[in-house]
Amino acid sequence: MSPKPRATDVKARLVEAAIRLLDDGGPETLQARKLAAEVGVSTMAVYTHFGGMAALVDEVARAGFLRLSEWLAEVGETDDPVADIFSLARTYRQAVAEQPQLFAVTFGQSAPGGKRATLSDLTTEEGREAAPEGLEAFEHIVRATERAIEAGRFRPADKYQAAAQLWSALHGFVTLEASGHFGPGEQGIDHILIPLGITLAVGLGDTVDRAERSTDAAKAAWRARTRNAGQGGND
């Protein structure tokens, strides 16, 4: 007789199955019955492990933030923090493009079964304490912003609030691009995202020349990363 799966194993499998259902069919497929069938358990297991769909959606959102953090961690740090911010932006955009349904739930833009993820204000200490997974992802942008301040590229400012400005612009771009507003392929990056990033960097205290050099460095880093991954790079 095979061993009975541990509760934590079943819970993790349910979250992974929920992400697969989202990826394959969107938020309308995230139902207790379909989820149970995907994992091979009874519908009651969903309620046993989560108490209801609202808690499941919160777990999916937490998993989304952790995946985003893993993506952003791959960027690493260079001696140019502003270039690193551009690299993080490009990576963020790719992550969301690869799993749009997951990240729509993660950021509260989608509400499967009418249940929207519980989100926190990561610019406040209370919000950061309430959402450690969201903070883990956000901290990649915060750290690069802090380094830009320390290097004199950005004016002294609250690092969380400054990073939130960058995040707001980035996520707005990604959301609009995903809806088709900036055309196909990569043209939105050159025409919108990079000029937007330069404008924000200058607004935060950088110079146009330094910001442009940082975008060039970020482009070169992106080409190197995609070549190493065997994908072929586009500017």
From TrEMBL:
Which residue ranges hold the DNA-binding region? Answer: 31-50
Among PROSITE patterns, the record links this protein to: HTH_TETR_2 (PS50977)
The record ties this protein, via Pfam families, to: TetR_C_33 (PF13305), TetR_N (PF00440)
Gene3D superfamilies on file: Tetracycline Repressor, domain 2 (1.10.357.10)
Q: Where is the HTH tetR-type domain?
A: 8-68
**GO MF, one example:** DNA-binding transcription factor activity
InterPro entries documented for this protein: Homeodomain-like_sf (IPR009057), HTH-type_TetR-like_transc_reg (IPR050109), HTH_TetR (IPR001647), MT1864/Rv1816-like_C (IPR025996), Tet_transcr_reg_TetR-rel_C_sf (IPR036271)
Recite the UniProt keywords alphabetically.
Answer: DNA-binding, Transcription, Transcription regulation
- Which PANTHER family does the entry mention? HTH-TYPE TRANSCRIPTIONAL REGULATOR RUTR, TRANSCRIPTIONAL REGULATORY PROTEIN
Q: What is this protein called?
A: TetR/AcrR family transcriptional regulator
The organism of origin for this protein: Amycolatopsis eburnea
